[in-house]
Specification:
This protein has one domain: Glutaredoxin. Helix 1 crosses helix 3. With 80 residues, the protein is of the alpha+beta class. Strands 2-1-3-4 form a four-stranded mixed β-sheet.
Length: 80
């Protein structure tokens, strides 16, 4: 599973990245977290507000700082 955090480096973007890493540690397995800060790359996802969470190329959340538990729940839904 590939997790991307879209954001230009604000504190919420950094916190979302940390929460995503914590969520992945909880669920285990082999996953990657990539921070995307290039505005042109972010625009490819049609994201209007950051931070944004992308899972395997699909935008799951925008403009909200998700907790690690919220991310775990999103990832569990993906695997159903």
């Amino acid at each position: 599973m590939k997790i991307e955090i879209l954001g230009t480096g604000c504190s919420k973007c950094k916190a979302l990245e940390a929460n995503a890493k914590e969520a992945l540690a909880q669920i285990g397995g082999f996953h990657s977290v990539v921070k995307v800060e290039d505005i042109m790359e972010i625009m490819k996802y049609n994201v209007v507000s950051t931070p944004a969470l992308v899972v395997d190329g699909k935008v799951k959340s925008t403009g909200k700082l998700l907790t690690a538990q919220e991310i775990v729940e999103l990832l569990k839904l993906k695997n159903i």
